[in-house]
Amino acid sequence: MFTRRDLMAGAAAASLLPLAGANAQTAAPVDLLKIFVPAAPGGGWDQTARAVENVLRATKLVNGAQITNVPGAGGAVGLPQFINQWKGQGNALMVAGMVMVGSLIANKSALSLTQVTPIARLTGEFQALVVPASSPFKTTKDFVDALKADPTKVPVAGGSAGGSDHILLGMIAKAVGVPAPKVSYVAFAGGGPAVAALLGSQVAAGISGYGEFGEQIKAGKLRLLAISADKRQEGIDAPTLKEGGVDVELFNWRGVFAPPGVSDAQRAAMVKLIESMTASPQWADICKKQDWTPITLTGAEYGKYIESETARIRDILKDLGLA
């Protein structure tokens, strides 16, 4: 799980990439890049996929791209398809991240992200705790007080079971003395359905990356109670969970993977493609717009990170009663 130090080190390293990219050979254009998104349109992975597509097109690193969405169970539905049907395709990438790691563990899947080919970690994003505009909850304390009174009466919308949204709710519950297994978590296959449930007041609150709620917050349709960052963020009028009396901090991460069975040359070419993309000013601009922290890590080092992150999240889910 990311600490602020991890993110700042990653961001510092990422800030050097444009200089490195200027001196290095740019990746050769890909004729058609196929991007696999194991989630419904509108969510964080889908937003990431479309950002990658837009930047690669703008920088002329690809001549064309197509996105395939296969939603369900935090990636547990799509991952087998990517592994089995996309095997060996050197022009394909899957977007995934911390959510899938947790979901696969929580769903006791026989599969894991160690079975695909790690290409690059891309971004980190703090989580947001929101409520409908009509909610009686005005502060984090109001939400926590209701959770303590009866967690079953405070349904919280988020991504698939075991993902970062679910983990954050469990961490909040544990921090305030509520048994994590007793919280009422309502899992959705993507950000769009979760937002719809919030706008329809079908749930009491929602947790996801700030970028998924940003438009509705700015429009006054959702109220932002707190963010899971270590400090207040520029341009976001909300306290941290810690300011609200909940000693919790959490950052989500997202990255891309090639299918299993690609050659070393195909893997190296895809790593080079993504390194060229993340070194571009267009990528820096879209990260700023989406409130994503660039934390680029590629190739073998990313593979080691996936292995350690899988073990760490498994331990956290066990502690929280989610696995």
Architecture overview:
With 323 residues, the chain is α/β, with parallel strands linked by helices. It folds into two domains: 4-124 and 252-319, 3-Layer(aba) Sandwich (D-Maltodextrin-Binding Protein, domain 2), CATH 3.40.190.150; 126-227, D-Maltodextrin-Binding Protein, domain 2. It contains twelve helices and ten strands. It has helices at 4-15, 17-23, 44-58, 78-85, 98-106, 140-149, 164-175, 191-199, 210-218, 264-278, 281-290, 299-319; strands spanning 33-37, 65-69, 92-97, 117-132, 156-158, 185-187, 205-209, 222-227, 251-258, 293-298. Strands 1, 2, 3, 4, 5, 6, 7, 8, 9 and 10 form a ten-stranded mixed beta sheet that branches. The radius of gyration is 19 Å and the shape is globular. The two termini are 17 Å apart. Residues 8-24 have low confidence and may be disordered.
Which properties best describe this structure?
single chain, 323 residues, alpha/beta, D-Maltodextrin-Binding Protein, domain 2, ten-stranded mixed β-sheet
Low-pLDDT residue spans: 8-24
Amount of beta strand: 15-25%
Principal-axes geometry comes out as globular
Look up the CATH topology of the largest domain: D-Maltodextrin-Binding Protein, domain 2
Round the Cα radius of gyration to an integer and report it: 19 Å
How many discrete domains? Answer: 2
Let me know the CATH homologous superfamily of the largest domain. Bordetella uptake gene, domain 1
* SSE run: HHEHEHEHEHEHEHEHEEHHEH
Number of strands: 10
CATH architecture of the largest domain: 3-Layer(aba) Sandwich
- Which class best fits the helix and strand makeup? alpha/beta
Q: Residue-averaged pLDDT, rounded?
A: 89
Helical segment count: 12
Q: Would you state the CATH class of the largest domain?
A: Alpha Beta
Give the % helix: 40-55%
State the end-to-end CA separation. Answer: 17 Å
For the report, how would you describe the main beta sheet?
A: 10 strands, mixed
